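Sequence, please.
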């Protein structure tokens, strides 16, 4: 095998490496992006609006418990029970931590 062939092979393998790295498992969305979805019902700052409670400053365990109740249809809701099913447990924990420290 000539030097040209070896260099060409190294170039092809090297070019494929970024593509392989990009096919890794998807990562959860950054917290601010995830939290933006809550603004439509809970307000820009999460302080609640007519018909929806404030979520800022909520204890993370309470946040996650309530989320689980919505997800399991154990808590009355107009749309939150459907929204709750669209988030992973990790994303819910991230939201709970994010809103817990907001005032």
């Amino acid at each position: 095998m000539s030097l040209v062939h070896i260099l060409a092979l190294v170039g092809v393998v090297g070019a494929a490496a970024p593509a392989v790295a990009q096919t890794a498992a998807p990562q959860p969305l950054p917290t601010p992006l995830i939290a933006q979805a809550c603004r439509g019902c809970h307000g820009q700052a999460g302080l609640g609006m007519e018909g929806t409670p404030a979520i800022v400053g909520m204890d993370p365990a309470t946040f996650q418990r309530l989320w689980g109740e919505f997800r399991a249809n154990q808590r009355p809701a107009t749309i939150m029970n459907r929204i709750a099913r669209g988030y992973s447990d990790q994303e819910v924990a991230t939201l709970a931590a994010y809103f817990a420290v907001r005032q």
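The two ends are 67 Å apart (CA to CA).
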